[in-house]
Specification:
The protein is mainly α.
């Protein structure tokens, strides 16, 4: 049984292992409150309500309201990712200046 626990521990990605300082203790401090608010929204919003809201948003977007246009585009196609162009030398210099924690976050796919 002890061997099985050790092998399971070794197979886990680093960011879920005990002692990882990148994710230590943060979690989702407001998860219960957010869940409660979402439940209220889902319990009180009908498909018809959503259709009315979406039609209003489209109406605003069609008339040139930029925030409405952005919202429609983000909801339909996902948020645009801003590309940053660098020369290889600039990229190498930026990586050299990063801390180990920043490099780990970058390797794990976090954008923060």
């Amino acid at each position: 049984m002890a061997n099985q626990e050790n092998s399971n521990k070794e197979n886990k990605p680093y960011y879920f292992q005990k002692g990882n300082t990148l994710a230590a203790g943060h979690g989702r401090p407001y998860a219960k409150q957010v869940h409660a608010l979402k439940k209220v929204i889902f319990d009180t919003t009908t498909p018809h309500d959503m259709q009315v809201i979406w039609k209003k948003l489209l109406y605003m977007a069609k008339r040139g309201n930029m925030p409405a246009i952005r919202e429609v585009m983000d909801r339909c196609f996902g948020k645009a990712i801003q590309a940053v162009e660098m020369t290889p030398a600039e990229a190498e210099e930026n990586v050299k200046e990063m801390s180990t924690e920043e490099l780990m976050r970058l390797a794990m796919g976090s954008r923060n």
